[in-house]
Amino acid sequence: MKILITGTAGFIGFHLAKNLLERGDEVVGLDSINDYYSVDLKYDRLRECGIDTGKINYGQKVVSGRYPNYSFIQLKLEDNDALQDLFATEKFDKVCNLAAQAGVRYSLENPRAYIDSNILGFMNILEACRYNKVKHLAYASSSSVYGLNESMPFSIHDNVDHPISIYAATKKSNELMAHTYSNLFGLPTTGLRFFTVYGPWGRPDMALFLFTQAIIKGEPIKVFNEGNMRRDFTYVDDIVEGVKRVIDNPPSPNESWTGKKPDPATSKFPYRVYNIGNSAPVSLMDFIEAIEGALGKKAKKDLLPMQPGDVVATWADTTDLEKNLGYKPGTSVKDGVSRFIDWYKLYYKID
Questions:
Q1: Bridge partners of 223?
Q2: Which of the 8 DSSP states describes residue 144?
């Protein structure tokens, strides 16, 4: 297949691109390479896939020196003309949209960045898929769409009408927009609600990265809600395996769907939503303990109140993922954190 992956300089996009390339797919990677976090880390991910970052110029493709079936282009999703030209030229079979302005807390400071990238940019992706007969659009949603929901585990069959951050609202909007295109134009779309992804090459703004960095330096870590939080931490390789299975299996209409009792996760059109999570929530204090164990060093904790936009707990119900695609993530936090620490020490040359 010829697959477009947006966000390939990002954490999940980098891992997904590498995985698909190694199984033999032709991949075009797209990323704006914005400075929300370390651009150097993003360039290093691209170099790991054989991209000569010295040759990157906006709007121009660079072919990998490691994978002949991989090329990269720096482009913003908001650049509609350039995006439509790319689709018309490349004739993608399938698209996986992982590009987005990430981060719940940053959405409190700069909400417009989320509207531009996550809504306007996604609209451009939908239009490009529509006019170029893409066979399947898979796209990143987020566990944050569950917002004020308290029924655990979070089920894709529950309504998600109460997001508590602009980031979450944009992801919910993506699901609604995708459903509309599945209805009007028959575009198969699948939304992927990721649950607290972590692992090697991860984002520096995420807890695992921040905690590891601070503990190594002997600095206190910021522990919100005084540590009384639980997260369904999901290892990146498990996320990638789930995404691959979704890409390979476009949704079909749910013949039993009815408007009298509408199922939010399916439709009478080719539309689907899946949770991809470990289904094993871990307390924040136990997560910190796993980091301490891998580092062999205790953390100094600065206990702080709950942050606006955060939720106390997440827990993925992956029943549909297991039933329809035969997959259940299962990497333990202990193993996943250990692999991240090994990578972190190697990347930053720490003995």
A1: 303
A2: G
Compute CA distances 289 → 206, 300, 310, whole Å.
Answer: 17, 12, 21
Amino acid (1-letter code) at residue 1: M
Joined tokens for residue 10: 């990002």
Question: 70-117: per-residue pLDDT in tens?
Answer: 999 999 999 999 999 999 999 999 999 999 988 887 888 889 999 999
* DSSP secondary structure string for all residues of 168-234: HHHHHHHHHHHHHHHHHH---EEEEEE-SEE-TT--TTSHHHHHHHHHHHTPEEEEGGGG--EE--E
What phi and psi, each to the nearest 5 degrees, are found at residue 76?
-95, 140
Give the active site residues: 167
Residues of the chain scoring pLDDT < 70:
none
Task: Count how many residues are written for the chain.
Answer: 351
Positive or negative: CA dihedral 4, 339, 317, 226: negative
**Which contiguous run of DSSP H or E holds residue 109?**
helix 106-109
Could you tell me the sign of the dihedral formed by the alpha carbons of 289, 291, 296, 299, in that order?
negative
The full DSSP string for 302-346 is EE-PPPTT--SB--B--HHHHHHH-------HHHHHHHHHHHHHH
342 vs 261: CA distance, rounded Å: 49
Answer positive or negative: Cα dihedral of 201, 204, 206, 211: positive
Pick from 343, 325, 349, 308: which is nearest to 244 by CA?
325
Burial of residue 19 (number of CB atoms within 10 Å: 0-12, 13-18, 19+): middle
Question: pTM value?
Answer: 0.96
CA-nearest of 203, 332, 349, 239 to 280 is 332
From 129, 99, 100, select the one nearest 6 (Cα to Cα).
99
The CA distance from 188 to 147, in Å, is 26
